[in-house]
Amino acid sequence: MRAILCAAAILIGFSAARAEEEKIPVDKLPKAVAESVKKRFPKAELTGASKETVEKKTAYEVMLKDGKIAVDVNVNEDGTITGMEKEITVADLPKAIEDAVVAKYPKTKAKKAEEVIKVKGGKEVLEYYEVIVEVDGKDVEVEVLPDGKLKPMDKK
Predict the structure, then answer these.
(1) What is the maximal distance between C-alpha atoms in the chain?
(2) pLDDT single digits (tens) 5-40
(3) Cβ count near 130 (within 10 Å)
(4) Domains of the chain, start order
(5) pTM confidence score
(6) 139-148 as b/e, with b when 16 or more CB fall inside 10 Å?
(7) What is the pLDDT of residues 24-81, one digit of tens each?
(8) Is 58:82 a contact under the CB 8 Å cutoff?
């Protein structure tokens, strides 16, 4: 009986800690979130948004088009931008990144690329590149650090 109760407690705790993401209309974003994104990307069109709650903290992902470039911006409830993923053309990938992808998947070409940027203390820092390649008919994401090394897998 104790084992069952322990297992139930663990499952309840796990589900409470999981993120709950929901799509929301752009016009329902908190004022601080919308203003922060518009200030950083004044010419961009906000195209979508989602709200996520993790351990009672709410954050938002705002999708936008800045000219021809798609950008996903991560914003805390207070309007603090914490990161973003900016689409770049495959042709604009640095050679070191291209070389790393080709070394990992020699018989494929990149289909899509993004810069993953973290924001700390108001400063944007390129963390890594995400490159999508097709392998055996399936899209595979390759994460490459700016120095051309493959990003170590997260241990979860």
Answers:
(1) 61
(2) 333 444 444 444 445 789 999 999 999 999 999 999
(3) 16
(4) 20-144 (3.10.450.360)
(5) 0.80
(6) eeebbbbeeb
(7) 999 999 999 999 999 999 999 999 999 998 888 899 999 999 989 999 999 999 999 9
(8) no
